[in-house]
Amino acid sequence: xxxxxxxxxxxxxFVLTSRTGECDNGCIINTAMQVTTTPNRISITVNKANKTxxxxxxxxxxxxxxxxxxxxxxVFTHFGFRSGKDTDKFADWxxxxxxxxxxxxxxxxxxxxxxxxxxxxxxxxxxxMFIADVTDGEVLxxxxxxxxxxxxxxxxxxxxxxxxxxxxxxxxxxAGPSKWVCRICGYVYEGEELPEDFICPVCKHGAIDFEKVx
Length: 214
Description:
Elements (H helix, E strand, L loop, with lengths): L13 E7 L2 E7 L2 E5 L4 E7 L3 H9 L1 E7 L5 H8 L15 E3 L5 E3 L3 E14 L3 E13 L8 H8 L23 E4 L5 E3 L19 E3 L2
Antiparallel strand pairs: 1-2, 1-5, 3-4, 4-9, 5-8, 6-7, 8-9, 10-11, 10-12
């Protein structure tokens, strides 16, 4: 099977947020979709390793902020490349507002948000699928929603684009271990072989989404 065929599935990218007690958190997901219109329900699928996952299980509510093509790479690094378990992601993110369900949504780089109240959960092993009633929503801009394909082509920096360190002279460069780069977030794993069950510690994608670069 050509696993790259999976990349041809069309889907968007979203900031998923929730709140428990006085704690707000959010993460990047690509698994939000409408499942029924009557009643109006959506589904989200969240990795169990994410703090946002546990917060949704506890609170039963969340917001999905739809990222637009105006989104800068910063929003992906801010909400997707670090863990809410050791970082307050909203401490230095002023572009947010609180909806009627008490959860923050992103007001910059987004064209709409939806609020959900969980009515059903499905255990998928590494992830949980939450089915939720849509309780609120608002259009924030007329910009087009960003797709995964658009993100890869127009937002995510190309290799070597983000301030690379000066290279050592070729004659002095040590051989070093092989490197495997995550196609989703750019995380680099060093080692001669990438374990088949390896999970990216940043974006939580599996070994199938890594490619060897040297």
